[in-house]
Amino acid sequence: MARAVPKRVIGQRYEIRGPIKSGGMGHVWRAYDVVLERDVAIKVIRHGIAGDSEELAQRFRNEALIHAKLAHSGIPKVHDALLDAAADGLYMVMELVQGESLAEIVTVSGRLPIHWTACLGVQLCAILHHAHEISVVHRDIKPENIMVAVDGTVRLLDFGIAVTPDPSLSRLTSAGKVVGTYVYMAPEQIEESNITPSADLYSFGVLLYQLLIGKPPFEGSTVQLMRHHLFSSPVTPRSLRPEIDAQLDELVMGLLAKKPSERPEGALEVARRLLSHAPSGSGYLSVPGLPELIHPTLPVPSARGAGKPAGKPCSASRPARIISVSARIAEALQLLADGRVSEAVASYQELAEELGKAGPERAFEAQKCRIRAAICRIKLNQEQQALEELQIELKELLRLYPATHPQVLEVRKYIGFLLRFLRRFSEAAVVLVDLHGDLVQARGSDSEDAVAVRNELVRIRRQMQGS
């Protein structure tokens, strides 16, 4: 007779029933609360995740506390949280949302009807308006984090990388580490600039574009996506789908503005403008092949939010000097985008010098600015000087970080490519062979950077044979 498999129980209360989804930090499970006799969702931190365990615990605690501050029907409620890593682990017990993931809907249906998209968009903007009113920025708006519940309402999930100015909820993003999903990421997220609610509006614009057209405005590798978000203008939705009217086209393109100040002022304004594209009436919107949606209504602005546009910076989100640095980095990037490369180099160098005088706590940022200045020199045809500066920075980096640190890997790649460009083939091959091994170890043989380095080695081999 087969022995029954014992049920896995968390916290001596929650019986795990099956998986819902997996993410970067862990798993989400369907479970049953034996005390209150109800189904719940449990988010569990994966064992063996790279990184400092105390930082993970603090990040997880922050997510629970941010959820506790949110009070909107479109955001799943948190019922319980165990934050003691020495016990059963790190887990968060949440309301179980029954419905369909927007990611699944998009995969099956492709581009969606305009009025259905607008209806969903108004509901999502109402959720964002609530979050932004209490200065919570989600930072990861994408189809995988949105559900259409069985009651026709839209739900926004996963505030794992959300930020808030509350001093009790510390910012845990490590220096030089970009968080979010590149397909939907605002330019200021890519550049680690001051993050405001406007970053969510940009991501929402990418999402809206995808729902209307069937694909996001930009596609490609991570590097290509970063460049597109920073410097490229997307094809207008109306040119790809003529039935999109001029007002909706203008709204989408406004949301995708590179500068936060040029986007709509807040989620409430976006909801108002979308509402005119959604069907009027009450009850449910039914479209064959798609889940039903409740006809949307506008969120009511709270008194505390009056006169304070949601897109403005949250004054407590960073110390003033950090905001100043981020703004100047953004200015340097804009100079680069405008083709004023020499000015961009000078701007990075000036900032690096100032940060270098600010003490060891700013050393990483200073070095990052020096590296960016060196990379900019490549556009000025100053390859030899760029190489020499990057080699100096690499020695300093390797004194502080392992060979597989992301910044070290990036500098090694530029050095290898520059050596090949300068026809120092043997040196380039040595650098890139070692780099390829470390990239495979750190990111896998099929990672974008590993493939790029492998292709570069093929070019070197051909050039050496032809010389």
How many helical elements?
16
CATH architecture grouping of the largest domain: Orthogonal Bundle
Report strand order across the widest sheet.
Answer: 1-2-3-4-6-5
Distance between the termini: 74 Å
Considering DSSP H and I runs of 4 or more, what fraction of the residues is helical? 40-55%
Strand content: 5-15%
- SS-based class: alpha+beta
**Could you say what the CATH topology of the largest domain is called?**
Transferase(Phosphotransferase), domain 1
CATH class of the largest domain: Mainly Alpha
Task: Walk me through the structure.
With 467 residues, this protein is α+β, with helices and mostly antiparallel strands. It has four domains: 10-95, 2-Layer Sandwich (Phosphorylase Kinase, domain 1), CATH 3.30.200.20; 99-163 and 177-305, Transferase(Phosphotransferase) domain 1 (Transferase(Phosphotransferase), domain 1), CATH 1.10.510; 318-381, no CATH class; 406-467, no CATH class. It is 48% helix and 11% strand. It has helices at residues 53-69, 102-109, 114-133, 187-190, 197-213, 222-231, 237-240, 246-255, 267-275, 320-337, 341-356, 363-379, 383-400, 406-421, 425-443, 448-466; strands at 9-10, 14-22, 26-33, 38-45, 78-82, 91-95, 99-101, 146-149, 154-156, 284-285, 293-294. The strands form three sheets. Strands 1-2-3-4-6-5 form a six-stranded antiparallel β-sheet, covered by helices on one side. Strands 7-8-9 form a three-stranded antiparallel β-sheet. A hairpin with a 3-residue loop joins strand 2 and strand 3. The longest helix is centred in the first third of the chain and has 20 residues, at 114-133.
